Amino acid sequence: MRLIVGGLITVFVFMGCGSSSTISKSGGSTLHAAKFCEMLQGTYSSEAQSKKDTSYFHIALAIYPIWSERSDARYFYVEQAMAPKYLDKPYRQRVYKIVPGVGDTMISVIYTFKDPLNYAGAHKDKTILAKLTYDKIEQKDGCEVYLIPHKDGFKGGTKGSNCPSTLRGAAYATTEVTMTPAQLLSWDRGYDKDGKYVWGAEKGGYVFDKISK
């Protein structure tokens, strides 16, 4: 049975992507911020994985830096859609905010917003993106993703059962993420109140190959 993976990872800023000035309170996090920013942003596709294993969908993923004028953190607009038929109707849209954690840890705070389809394709159209303002987003408490440097990239996930979910009878969801210069691996799963798996990819996470920066 083919199951769509849920949410994605973490995020950064629009212009001056190589700068770490907006993440300056934690030395380790600051040192890795520019690398993470450059590595994360871009367009991705799980087409290759879907061709090898039909239990996975072909999903297009776009991660676009926004709100460069803000000095509190770095932000990204994130959009996922079924490809190639439903690129104009993404099934998941988020804003991610990156803040420093302890030591080398970076934290991706996840936000939703109302009427997300009004912003479909915003990563390709600045006039649409301009309509998405900070006052329109709402934090998903407990769904933060904690990332640390790992080999030539980054690795992390959510903590315990803190991220609430009601999808398909779930009580909470988990996310595991591994990022390299060439790929983004994301494994989202939902569990009921007794800790029983109820949704998400069964064999492993989705593998998104980086298409462009």
In short:
With 213 residues, the chain is mostly beta strands.
The largest β sheet comes out as:
10 strands, antiparallel, barrel
Radius of gyration: 16 Å
Strand content: 35-45%
Segments where pLDDT lies below 50 for 5+ residues? 1-27
Look at the helices and sheets and give the structural class: mainly beta
Distance between the amino and carboxyl termini: 32 Å
**Quaternary organization:** single chain
Overall CATH architecture:
Beta Barrel
General form: globular
| CATH level 1 class label | Mainly Beta
> If strands are numbered along the chain, what order do they take across the biggest sheet?
1-2-3-4-5-7-8-10-11-13
Would you give an account of this structure?
This protein is mainly beta and 213 residues long. It has one domain: Lipocalin (Beta Barrel), CATH 2.40.128.590. Helices cover 11% and strands 38% of the residues. It contains three helices and 13 strands. Strands 1-2-3-4-5-7-8-10-11-13 form a ten-stranded antiparallel beta barrel. Strand 2 and strand 3 form a beta hairpin. The N terminus is likely disordered.
Write the topology of this structure:
Blueprint: H1 27-40, E1 42-45, H2 47-52, E2 59-66, E3 74-82, E4 92-100, E5 106-113, H3 126-129, E6 137-139, E7 145-150, E8 153-157, E9 163-164, E10 172-179, E11 183-191, E12 197-200, E13 206-212
Antiparallel strand pairs: 1-2, 1-13, 2-3, 3-4, 4-5, 5-6, 5-7, 7-8, 8-10, 9-10, 10-11, 11-12, 11-13
